[in-house]
Amino acid sequence: MKKLTSMTGLLLLTLATIGCSSKNNRSYTDAYRAALQDHPGVAIEGKSSVDAFLGVYDHLGGKDIDQYVERAYAQDLYFNDTLHTIRDRDTLKTYLMETGEKIDSVEVEVMSVMQDGADVYVRWTMTTKFKVMGKKIDATSVGISHLRFDDQNRVILHQDFWDNTEGLFSHLPFIGGIVRWARGKT
Question: How many structural domains does the chain have?
Answer without folding.
Answer: 1
